[in-house]
Amino acid sequence: MRIEDTFLPVLIIQNGQIKSCNQVFSKLVGLTCSELQKATLDNVLVFDYKDASHDINELIKTACNRNNSDEGCLITGQLIDCNFYHLKVELHCQQLEQGYIKLYFNVIENKAVDPISGLPNGWAISARATHLLNLPSEDAKAMRLVILSVDNFSTINFRYGFDSGDNYLAILGQKLNKLVNHGLLVRFSNARFGILMENELDLCSSDFKIQVSNFCQHLCDSSLGQLTLDNGITVNKSISIGISSEHIEYSSYFSMEVAAETAMREAERHSDSYYYFSSLTMAPDLVTSKLIIDEFPNAIDKSLIRIHYQPQYDLATNKLVGFEALSRWIHKDLGYIAPDVFIKISEDIGLHFEFDLWVFTKVCNQVVDWQSAGIYTPKIAINISFKTLEMTTFVSRLEAIIESTGCSKDLLEIEVTETASITYMDILINNVRAVRDLGISVAIDDFGTGYSSLSLIRTLKDSLDTLKIDRSLVADICDSKLDKEFARKIIGLGKILDVKVLAEGVETLAQRNLLQALGCDYAQGYYFDKALTKSGAEKLIQNKDTH
Questions:
Q1: Distance (Å, rounded) from C-alpha 174 to C-alpha 238?
Q2: What is the CA radius of gyration of the chain?
Q3: Which element (helix H / strand E) includes 40?
Q4: pLDDT, tens digit (0-9, with 9 covering 90-100), for 132-155
Q5: Cβ–Cβ < 8 Å for 278, 262
Q6: Between 284-301 and 352-372, two packed helices, what is the crossing angle to 10 degrees?
Q7: What is the full DSSP assignment across 43-64?
Q8: In this predicted model, what pLDDT tens digit does every residue of 209-259 receive, in sequence order?
Q9: What distance in Å separates the CA atoms of residue 235 and residue 225, rounded to the nearest whole number?
Q10: Whole-structure pTM over 0.70, yes or no?
């Protein structure tokens, strides 16, 4: 036996029929040799050809006949495993006697396996569920999605280390695998597992629900036993389980997953192991959040989020003095997504740093483009969250962006946006000072709300250029004596600190005039202009006397 027959997946065919395979191939696709012999070749293998007229058997014969040697040649394609997931492969064809053809496979990419537990992952369950959902009704079997989460899993990592946490997940995966007799078991991420339960016994809907319920109750009871890790540590954790309705209630696998996730969150409210069936009344905020979480990285990569520019004016001269860069995301399904929604999610999933730097880069490139075109460019302010300012590499990353784009630093302003409380005060303060030392202006955004702190302002007083009055204090400034006095005090604080004060959300002439009378320096809002597209900002610049 040749060594490649032992280590590479091998499939033997004759006249388009699968005749045999080795154990490596069987393990790779999750099907036995006898199961494969019942399948047609095009159920297992597809080639990367756009022309639908190509017959798979003819392609293999052509590949084998490209030269006269016994070595055959290499082509690319996709293997379809038992979960209907497509694995990218390179295929080596070798002609044997009596019309047999031996196919050697080299797997280029298999994203459907979890490296920690060895189980299939979310790619696998999504592929299988989507395939089953698209079957004709007469061929489809009922199915439900079960999502299982280990309660307070992070305490294992904190107490015993990440190696112990990974070991716990692997052992738990093995235990679950022994308990799951009917369905596909996968690990999603962290301590979340999924089980796609199929009605293989053709039970009626009520009996199938009872079967699923009994199974989940068994899982809850089993979780009460202790798991012993390889290092001898014993761990006892409860679990929370969410169960979707039957698949016919959903238009896609995504909807099933959100339903099961919602039910799982309900189960988490209990102090011990518990399972919960989803109702058809979904939580729309969770559906929206999950969709945004799934698509936010792609929105950044493909620049689906646009940068608009809201003009800022000098109240004394009515001249344009700057822009604030604002992110706008028009989702193909959800429509307009408010910035505070996706920015909050970016912080929750840890993408705030890259997103803030992505916006900073976009603005720098725009400044350079305008200057290269001879367009007068006022200062542009970019919002940066507290969490981003707490990153140790923040300043060095800014410097790298400025160097690579060639942007003028005196045309940039960082708006410190108070989206969360400060965890690492020393790092934040040092970063703000370092940004100012670079020659970039610094503003405190939304002052008077959120987590604003007079002690922080006092500490950063030598590094600040602007205080921005939050729009909530401007909205009723003409009618509320309290809001008027708040604004007066903030403007007075700006005078003490020797910084400019800018009011946000100015929508009426009365608000504009009152703010000017109180001594406010700058303002922005719908009274002046809404946030403009790049071309809209260019037209405004060219129409204003800004010099």
A1: 17
A2: 31
A3: none
A4: 998 887 778 899 999 999 988 888
A5: yes
A6: 50
A7: GTEEES-S-TT--HHHHHHHHH
A8: 999 999 999 999 876 567 999 999 999 999 999 999 998 888 788 888 888
A9: 9
A10: no
